[in-house]
Design brief:
single chain, 91 residues, alpha+beta, two-stranded parallel sheet, 3 helices, 2 strands
Length: 91
């Protein structure tokens, strides 16, 4: 058992598959394949289901996916952001 823990939490609008790349490889497995990372970190996963918040189109999820894609071997599809439109009625 290592002193450090990486906890993957799946929920909000996705489950376990959230952390898979286009080749079906899990992000945790890619990290574990690095001997230095694997010898210093334990990996655990927690999954829950909710539809309370839809973060798929949020700026946070858009930027987070772009950040995660910097990891070699990860190429997640970047969610498209829906722009808010304001309609002003002149009547």
């Amino acid at each position: 058992m290592n002193k450090n823990l990486v906890l993957f939490i799946h929920g909000l609008t996705g489950g376990y598959d959230t952390w898979k790349n286009s080749r079906g490889e899990l992000f945790a497995d890619l990290l574990k394949s690095d001997s230095e990372i694997n010898s210093n970190f334990d990996f655990r996963e927690f999954e829950y289901f909710t539809k309370i918040v839809n973060v798929k189109n949020s700026m946070l999820s858009h930027n987070l996916v772009k950040l995660v894609n910097f990891v070699p071997g990860i190429n997640l599809p970047v969610p498209k952001r829906k722009k808010k439109r304001f309609i002003f009625d002149s009547e």
